[in-house]
């Protein structure tokens, strides 16, 4: 698990690594740029026309080093454009400018938008990185507008220029609209939110050699879960074992017009390793289940009151359940049992409609998508506010909240 960190924390990790590894700042920049180049050369061929647009801070220094490293890898069609509009240059920018001069890469310095060429193909955006603060003013705003207009594909270095990654409020975004942002050492929380799409269509990160022990020691409320964090938790099938020892799940859901939701839920449960799955659906829908996934067992929803929940290791209620009076009675009965349950879809809609949030047993799991979440907890100004609300509600209700989206947030109770 990697902790999401702020720009300020990243700056500290940068300083710590330089001091304790030890490594010179210019060499750390070189490492970062090597990682960036390694990643983008998987996407672009040596013949592509590449324009590297640079500011004069360290993000600009990265751009110059990236241009040089690409050239050394055989990318011959590179042009560097330095925006000569900033009051100062960072020391590592100056060193990289000298290094670049030795390679005879075409280099232009511009001050105004009309000095930018129109025929930009692939652009590497290294104008501003994490040092950007405040708002974009002229002539920078116009230059960025022109880059956005003329580029066919934009890779942003670390973050799209003109985006303040630590502020979730981006109304009237004026910065670079990247196709792909490749950030350093950590994913950026902002890119987990749908709102980030105005600044970057996709996002990846590369390791650059910052001190991981220090980074992991930095406080954070949010963590990025990787595949390797999950695989170890899945129960591997043991020799001579059988379905009876891998748990029995009861799913209460599905109606004639929404039986697919119950089927998909059962299939996913079996796929992730549950030994036995029983679906409690209206009797007329048994054949749908039997045809779609023959190993699913069935219980008649009409006889729900006679079912003993104790024989199941876990219970999930909601997918395709419907909002009928009968569905409401079943949700109510489940809530009264006071056992932790997975509440999804219509079960959540019923809970918000009936105002039953306070009745949810501790340690339950709530799996809302955006709209279900807002119905439960009210609307939020933006995704960051929604996430913070989810984190507080998980603690307050002592329930795990799984807020589903392209990136799914799992909010724990502690
Ligand atoms: N995180 C790390 O450990 C590393 C970071 N590196 C790079 O360093 C970058 C940060 O470098 P810097 O701190 O020098 O910052 P930047 O290069 O991101 O920006 C600094 C420049 O932006 C200007 N600026 C700030 N706000 C502005 C505004 N509103 N309008 C116009 N100009 C504005 C400043 O005057 C300054 O010239 C990162 O994004 C990354 O690209 C890498 O070089 C290597 C390691
Ligand atoms: K950038």
UniProtKB/TrEMBL annotation:
<comment type="similarity">
    <text>In the C-terminal section; belongs to the NnrD/CARKD family.</text>
</comment>
<dbReference type="GO" id="GO:0046872">
    <property type="term" value="F:metal ion binding"/>
</dbReference>
<comment type="function">
    <text>Catalyzes the epimerization of the S- and R-forms of NAD(P)HX, a damaged form of NAD(P)H that is a result of enzymatic or heat-dependent hydration. This is a prerequisite for the S-specific NAD(P)H-hydrate dehydratase to allow the repair of both epimers of NAD(P)HX.</text>
</comment>
<dbReference type="InterPro" id="IPR029056">
    <property type="entry name" value="Ribokinase-like"/>
</dbReference>
<dbReference type="Pfam" id="PF03853">
    <property type="entry name" value="YjeF_N"/>
</dbReference>
<feature type="binding site">
    <location>
        <begin position="129"/>
        <end position="135"/>
    </location>
    <ligand>
        <name>(6S)-NADPHX</name>
    </ligand>
</feature>
<dbReference type="InterPro" id="IPR004443">
    <property type="entry name" value="YjeF_N_dom"/>
</dbReference>
<dbReference type="Pfam" id="PF01256">
    <property type="entry name" value="Carb_kinase"/>
</dbReference>
<feature type="binding site">
    <location>
        <position position="158"/>
    </location>
    <ligand>
        <name>(6S)-NADPHX</name>
    </ligand>
</feature>
<comment type="function">
    <text>Bifunctional enzyme that catalyzes the epimerization of the S- and R-forms of NAD(P)HX and the dehydration of the S-form of NAD(P)HX at the expense of ADP, which is converted to AMP. This allows the repair of both epimers of NAD(P)HX, a damaged form of NAD(P)H that is a result of enzymatic or heat-dependent hydration.</text>
</comment>
<feature type="binding site">
    <location>
        <position position="161"/>
    </location>
    <ligand>
        <name>K(+)</name>
    </ligand>
</feature>
<dbReference type="GO" id="GO:0052855">
    <property type="term" value="F:ADP-dependent NAD(P)H-hydrate dehydratase activity"/>
</dbReference>
<feature type="binding site">
    <location>
        <position position="125"/>
    </location>
    <ligand>
        <name>K(+)</name>
    </ligand>
</feature>
<keyword id="KW-0521">NADP</keyword>
<protein>
    <recommendedName>
        <fullName>NAD(P)H-hydrate epimerase</fullName>
        <ecNumber>5.1.99.6</ecNumber>
    </recommendedName>
</protein>
<keyword id="KW-0413">Isomerase</keyword>
<feature type="binding site">
    <location>
        <begin position="58"/>
        <end position="62"/>
    </location>
    <ligand>
        <name>(6S)-NADPHX</name>
    </ligand>
</feature>
<keyword id="KW-0456">Lyase</keyword>
<dbReference type="InterPro" id="IPR017953">
    <property type="entry name" value="Carbohydrate_kinase_pred_CS"/>
</dbReference>
<dbReference type="GO" id="GO:0052856">
    <property type="term" value="F:NAD(P)HX epimerase activity"/>
</dbReference>
<keyword id="KW-0479">Metal-binding</keyword>
<dbReference type="GO" id="GO:0110051">
    <property type="term" value="P:metabolite repair"/>
</dbReference>
<comment type="similarity">
    <text>In the N-terminal section; belongs to the NnrE/AIBP family.</text>
</comment>
<dbReference type="GO" id="GO:0005524">
    <property type="term" value="F:ATP binding"/>
</dbReference>
<feature type="domain" description="YjeF N-terminal">
    <location>
        <begin position="10"/>
        <end position="216"/>
    </location>
</feature>
<feature type="domain" description="YjeF C-terminal">
    <location>
        <begin position="226"/>
        <end position="414"/>
    </location>
</feature>
<keyword id="KW-0067">ATP-binding</keyword>
<keyword id="KW-0547">Nucleotide-binding</keyword>
<dbReference type="InterPro" id="IPR036652">
    <property type="entry name" value="YjeF_N_dom_sf"/>
</dbReference>
<dbReference type="InterPro" id="IPR000631">
    <property type="entry name" value="CARKD"/>
</dbReference>
<keyword id="KW-0630">Potassium</keyword>
<feature type="binding site">
    <location>
        <position position="59"/>
    </location>
    <ligand>
        <name>K(+)</name>
    </ligand>
</feature>
<keyword id="KW-0520">NAD</keyword>
């Amino acid at each position: 698990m990697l902790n999401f960190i702020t720009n300020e924390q990243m700056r500290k990790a940068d300083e710590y690594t330089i001091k304790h590894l030890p490594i010179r700042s210019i060499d750390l920049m070189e490492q970062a740029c090597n990682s960036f180049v390694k990643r983008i050369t998987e996407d672009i061929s040596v013949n592509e026309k590449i324009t590297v647009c640079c500011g004069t801070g360290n993000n600009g220094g990265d751009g110059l080093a990236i241009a040089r490293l690409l050239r050394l890898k055989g990318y011959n069609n590179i042009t560097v454009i330095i925006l000569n509009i900033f009051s100062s240059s960072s020391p590592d920018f100056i060193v990289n400018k000298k290094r670049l001069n030795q390679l005879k890469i075409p280099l232009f310095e511009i001050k105004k938008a009309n000095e930018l060429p129109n025929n930009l193909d692939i652009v590497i955006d290294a104008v501003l990185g994490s040092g950007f603060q405040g708002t974009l003013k002229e002539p920078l705003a116009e230059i960025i507008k022109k880059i956005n207009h003329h580029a066919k594909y934009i890779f942003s270095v670390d973050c799209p220029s003109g985006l303040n990654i630590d502020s979730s409020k981006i109304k009237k975004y004026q910065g670079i609209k990247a196709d792909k942002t490749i950030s350093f050492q950590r994913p950026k929380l902002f890119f987990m939110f749908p709102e980030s799409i105005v600044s970057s269509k996709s996002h990846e990160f590369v390791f650059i050699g910052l001190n991981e022990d220090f980074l992991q020691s930095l406080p954070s409320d949010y963590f990025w879960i990787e595949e390797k964090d999950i695989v170890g938790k899945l129960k591997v099938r043991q020799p001579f074992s059988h379905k009876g020892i891998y748990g029995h799940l009861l799913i209460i859901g599905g109606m004639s017009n929404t039986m697919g939701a119950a089927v998909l839920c059962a299939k996913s449960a079996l796929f992730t390793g549950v030994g036995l799955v029983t679906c409690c659906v209206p009797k007329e829908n048994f054949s749908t289940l039997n045809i779609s996934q023959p190993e699913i067992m069935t219980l008649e929803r009409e006889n729900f009151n006679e079912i003993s929940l104790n024989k199941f290791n876990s219970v999930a209620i909601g997918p395709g359940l419907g909002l009928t009076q009968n569905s409401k009675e079943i949700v109510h009965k489940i809530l009264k049992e006071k056992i932790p349950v997975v509440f999804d879809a219509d079960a959540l809609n019923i809970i918000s409609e009936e105002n039953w949030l306070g009745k949810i047993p501790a340690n339950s799991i709530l799996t809302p998508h955006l709209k279900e979440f807002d119905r439960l907890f009210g609307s939020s100004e933006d995704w960051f506010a929604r996430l913070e609300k989810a984190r507080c509600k998980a603690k307050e209700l002592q329930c795990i909240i799984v807020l589903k989206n392209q990136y799914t947030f799992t909010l724990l109770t502690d």
